[in-house]
């Protein structure tokens, strides 16, 4: 049975990037309000839930967040996975732009010890407690060396085995002036995968009326630890399962990136992108330079690197803009984080059947994992990922969808620096 958390409201138009929804009951009756009453239905956001099986002996739901501008996002509280993102193109035609599986069983299988040749893909999942790699499965904090399970060669990847992407999160749906929300919480006990400190994490997904999927991450700890949180959605702006993204354009707002060694661990150098395949400062097709023989592209089998974002202030700042020239869909990413991992699905080998029944092959999607830099616990020159008691972690990322006509895109108007989102 489907539960509904629907709030109907009318557009009250505050600011460029958000729309306020006022409860229908607050709209006065009367002739002049009849028009507004029509708007009420037209501007509603909603969130519903349905049972979606069980994992780790706990029941799991699938939540459907909708707005009235053609966007629908489904999210499960298993791993906080964004399972689908339906977005209209410039002609209003809707496609699911997120790679994923059609059933919970697909995700459970991919997270199991036999994930298939593509390995664990982390499709759409919340990644914690440490996104990306920690070299040699160890780090030293306040004089103590912590040993973590090595689940990626000698590295610890994405928090280690059975990390936050495999947990059933407590979920609270709601709907208000800012949009449809799903608030997820999870407590990661001290010692799990070797990390010190019990971490209480809250991730809130919001679908707004202006076609943004906003993600806020908060965390506290009871002992010093390290933290790096992201979402691992893979996007294909032509629709998942439609083939490669090489023809889609990417702009990354970064003058430098962090080159890696053969284990995909940053060397510590912040290398200028100028004159390399890594220069996405002006939009270019993702496939333009991907085969150009750059040693870094050979090591990673494509793009799988952290870009050092050109930040302005401490709030939301422009990270990247991707566009599909055919459909006109545009994805603009804003974040409070200092880096973004642009990964071109290099490990996808055609052995996984995705949501619409098509297999996923290398370069069939890309991720924009906003984050602190990989291996920061072992790299003193990188921005710190230490989380201490009494100084909560907070970060925010916005995936803003829009469409471009033949002349440009309509996503340049997002009001960025509205929130302070730094580590305190
Ligand atoms: C991140 C990593 C990649 C890969 C994917 C998951 O993007 O940087 O190397 O492990 O996650 O497949």
Can you characterise this structure?
It is a single chain. The chain folds into two domains: 3-42, no CATH class; 52-403, Beta-galactosidase, Chain A, domain 5. With 424 residues, the chain is mainly β. Strands 14-15-16-17-33-27-26-21-24 form a nine-stranded antiparallel β-sheet, with no helix packed on it. Strands 1-4-5-6-7-8 form a six-stranded antiparallel β-sheet, covered by helices on one side. A six-stranded antiparallel β-sheet has the order 20-31-28-25-22-23, with no helix packed on it. 5% of the residues lie in helices and 38% in strands. Residues 7-42 and 407-424 have low confidence and may be disordered. The structure holds alpha-D-galactopyranose. Alpha-D-galactopyranose is lined by residues 119, 121-122, 132, 157, 264, 304, 341, 343, 347, 367, 369. Alpha-D-galactopyranose binds next to strand 28 and strand 31.
Quick take:
It contains three helices and 33 strands. It has helices at 34-42, 104-110, 295-300, and strands spanning 3-4, 9-11, 21-23, 46-55, 58-66, 72-76, 82-88, 94-96, 126-127, 133-134, 138-141, 144-147, 156-157, 170-176, 179-188, 199-207, 212-221, 225-226, 230-231, 234-235, 249-252, 254-258, 271-272, 284-285, 304-309, 317-323, 329-335, 339-343, 349-353, 359-361, 366-371, 386-387, 393-403. It starts with a strand and ends in a 21-residue tail after the last strand.
């Amino acid at each position: 049975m489907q539960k509904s958390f629907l709030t109907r409201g009318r557009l009250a138009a505050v600011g460029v990037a958000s729309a306020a929804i006022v409860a229908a009951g607050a709209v006065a009756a009367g002739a002049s309000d009849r028009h507004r009453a029509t708007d009420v239905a037209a501007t509603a956001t909603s969130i519903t839930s349905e049972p979606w099986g069980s994992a780790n002996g706990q029941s799991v739901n699938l939540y459907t967040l909708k707005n009235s501008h053609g966007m629908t996002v489904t999210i499960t509280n298993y791993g906080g996975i964004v399972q689908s993102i339906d977005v209209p193109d410039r002609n209003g035609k809707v496609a699911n732009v997120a790679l994923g599986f059609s059933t919970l069983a697909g995700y459970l299988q991919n997270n199991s010890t036999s994930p298939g040749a593509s390995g664990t893909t982390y499709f759409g999942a919340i990644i914690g407690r440490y996104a990306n790699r920690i070299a040699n499965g160890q780090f030293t904090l306040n004089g103590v060396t912590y040993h973590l399970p090595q689940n990626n060669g000698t590295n610890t990847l994405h928090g280690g085995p059975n990390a936050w992407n495999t947990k059933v999160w407590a979920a609270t749906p709601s709907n208000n002036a800012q949009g449809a929300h799903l608030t997820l919480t999870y407590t990661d006990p001290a010692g799990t995968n070797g990390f010190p400190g019990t971490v209480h994490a809250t991730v809130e997904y919001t679908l707004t009326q202006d076609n943004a999927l906003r993600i806020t991450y908060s965390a506290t700890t009871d002992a010093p630890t390290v933290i790096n949180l992201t979402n691992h959605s893979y996007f294909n702006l032509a629709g998942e399962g439609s083939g490669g993204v090489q023809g889609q354009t990417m702009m990354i707002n970064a003058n430098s990136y962090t080159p890696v060694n053969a284990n995909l661990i940053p060397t510590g150098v912040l290398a200028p992108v100028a004159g390399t395949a890594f220069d996405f400062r002006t939009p270019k097709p993702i496939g333009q330079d991907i085969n150009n023989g750059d040693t870094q592209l050979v090591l990673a089998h494509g793009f799988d690197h952290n870009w050092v974002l050109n930040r302005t202030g401490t709030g939301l700042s422009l990270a990247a803009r991707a566009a599909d020239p055919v459909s006109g869909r545009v994805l603009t990413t804003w974040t409070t984080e200092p880096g973004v991992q642009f990964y071109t699905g290099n490990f996808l080998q055609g052995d996984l059947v995705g949501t619409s029944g098509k297999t996923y092959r290398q370069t069939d999607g890309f991720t924009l994992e906003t984050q602190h830099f990989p291996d920061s616990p072992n790299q003193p020159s990188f921005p710190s990922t230490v989380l201490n008691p009494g100084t909560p972690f907070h970060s925010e990322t916005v995936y803003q969808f829009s469409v471009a006509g033949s002349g440009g895109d309509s996503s340049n108007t997002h009001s960025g620096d509205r929130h302070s989102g730094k580590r305190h």
